[in-house]
Design a protein that fits this description.
It contains 5 helices and 3 strands; from the N terminus they run H-H-E-H-H-E-E-H. The chain is mainly alpha-helical. The protein is globular.
Length: 100
């Protein structure tokens, strides 16, 4: 069957991303960031609270930190930025359309 190591690595990377986006709060953050590309922590909290209601700041921080640790977001100055190439372009388009 061919495919080799690169196919296996692509599958592993996709599986990690799906696992990461399997939580509704992280999925909402990534959708928001796909639309905005960068945001302050308070902007993300405001967006999340418009969906989920009042959010515990520790919960928001946990999910943002997880996205940073997994290379989807980066913190630059006081803003969070969506890392270029962290989201497959096809998935990115779906997330932006769903968020729109």
């Amino acid at each position: 069957m061919g495919g080799g190591a690169s196919s296996l690595e692509e599958l592993k990377r996709s599986a990690r991303l799906f696992d990461l986006l399997g939580h509704p709060v992280r999925l909402a953050i990534v959708r928001y960031m796909c639309r905005n590309r960068e945001a302050y922590w308070s902007d993300i909290v405001e967006y999340l609270e418009s969906i989920f209601g009042r959010m515990n700041p520790n919960t928001v921080n946990f999910h943002i930190t997880r996205l940073v640790m997994d290379g989807v977001l980066e913190k630059r100055d006081n803003k969070y930025v969506l890392v270029e190439g962290a989201i497959d372009p096809r998935m990115f388009n779906v997330l932006v359309e769903e968020a729109g």
